[in-house]
Amino acid sequence: MNSELLTEFTYFVLAIFVGIEVISKVPTILHTPLMSGTNAIHGIILIGAILIAANATSPLEIILGFVAVLLATLNVVGGFVVTDRMLEMFKGRQAPAKQEKK
Amino acid sequence: MNIWIALAYLLAAVLFILGLKQLSSPRGARRGNQTAAVGMVIAVLATIPLLHFTAAGIVVTLLGLAIGAPVGAISARRVHMTAMPQMVAAFNGVGGGAAALVSISELLHRGLHPVFQIAFPSIFSMVVGGISFAGSAIAFAKLQGLITGTPITYAGQQVVNGLIAIAIVGLAVANLAVASQPIFFVPLLLLALVLGVAFVLPIGGADMPVVISLLNAFTGLSVAATGFVLNNFALIVAGTLVGASGTLLTTLMSQAMGRSLANVLFGAFGQIQASSGGAAVTAEGKTVRAGSPEDVGTMLAYARKVIVVPGYGLAVAQGQHALKELADELEKRGVEVEYAIHPVAGRMPGHMNVLLAEANVPYEQLKEMDEINGEFPSTDVALVVGANDVVNPAARNTQGSPIYGMPILNVDQAKNIVFMKRSMRPGFAGIDNELLYDPKTVMLFGDAKDSLTKLVAAVKAA
Where do the structural domains in chain B lie, given as residue ranges? Predict the structure, then answer.
């Protein structure tokens, strides 16, 4: 195992713990917005899609690159917008009221 | 990798983590989503210096962005509140598809014998991304009503699915051990797609949010694997965050329904009545009492305490404003009105809170199940608006019922029960509700919004 792979593997393992820890206290009513928010975050695959699309040369690579960029963009943009729409309903009066909840 | 790019990726990763943290508390949730979006913009911009564009490459990249961004934004803006879960499924599926395509492109690029640390994550990402893509497509179709929401099952289904999974592992090993070429990985991709479809088909529509959450975690892992292939820190960290938090969230969601994840995935929940008909208590020979809006209006107007139990039917009818009007009218007459929110009422957790918040129902009146269940015995009228399974006593009494063990709202303990339903059709889980035939139950048939409007008039007249 070379050192770069080892570093990447370290990030991977640490990110697992952070990912679990950071949402462990989510209330039921936020399950769906949280799912939708994390859904937008994995749209980061857009970076991967752009990396392969950018230096595409053969027709097959060009097609794969194009479709990957298109799908990943849908994931990112749609994901954040739909989450925002869900959450805009939670604004206003609700925020102070929430504090009363145990 | 350039140090500035690395630092920008680190900043993006921090913003993702902060965003997730904020997303899990009601007050910061919306800001959390925006924080994560800022992280995403930073991560994408930081990638630009890494690119070596070919002429065709720059065209397809810009074209993909130019088409994808407006289509994604507009469809997410236009979608109805009730259709949001399937929209999330769709966006999740395309993400999984993108990850699979990136991996395929890398496999084609790397030749016959890529080193194991490239080949393994590529194959993994392709298979898991493919499962997520196909599974999300089926989840979308079920929720959208393109195919039936009831579980599609056949004898030996789990065995067949198991065999597909074994074949996938076998082909993956062949890819790694023999040679990485299309003759191995194309069938592998196809099998992954088949497994995605086969694995979601037997799961009932009511459980789709849990399935979408699981597939969301799959896509996250697939993206993380792609990060190992491309040696990209941002992909690894963001993908893993989603994979880990998505897995936990999936478990939390099934717990909120009082069931284990295994039961959700393999229980073919909601198909028992559909397939075996007379197995449990069925409707035949029992009578229901249908009331007029005037009867029900009078009953409500002279009650002391009314608990409203909203469900999916309210969302479909968009009756939340009419419901608020009715509650206002009742409160004017001194009736105490509260809302009982079951954790899985509607099609997604939090659905009812969002819907009622839209109609400006005061948050203090929304009570969670544990908070309100003790109050039903002292309640004059429980008004069930478009809900069914979440008040079905079969969950308590009928061992063998698919919802047995699910915590429910104790509507049956109220002095009077009013069910507002469009028909006698069972709820989403496909199970008959004995409460509909209870002597203290009155049925008010029709569209929830219409009925509520009529009730407002009836209460005013009473």
Answer: 79-269, 279-461
Q: Can you list the residues of chain B whose pLDDT is less than 70?
A: 1, 268-286, 427-430
Hey, are the CB atoms on B61 and A64 less than 8 Å from each other? no
Both structure tokens of A15: 């990110």
B111 DSSP assignment: -
Euclidean distance between CA atoms B357 and B352, whole angstroms? 8
pTM for the complete prediction? 0.77
Q: Which amino acid is at B256?
A: A
pLDDT of residue B429: 66
**Distance in Å from the first CA to the final CA of chain A:** 49
Which amino acid is located at B23 in the chain? Answer: L
Q: Do B63 and A66 touch (CB under 8 A)?
A: yes
How many domains does one find in chain A?
1
Q: Say if domain B279-461 classifies as CATH 2.40.50.100.
A: no
Query: How many H-runs (helices) and E-runs (strands) does chain A carry?
Result: 6, 0
Q: What is the ipTM of this complex?
A: 0.89
Neighbours of B79 (CB within 10 A): 18
Task: Say which residue the tokens 């030996």 belong to.
Answer: B156
d(CA B274, CA B431): 8
Which residue from B minimizes the CA distance to A21?
Answer: B245
Cα of B285 to nearest chain A Cα, Å: 39
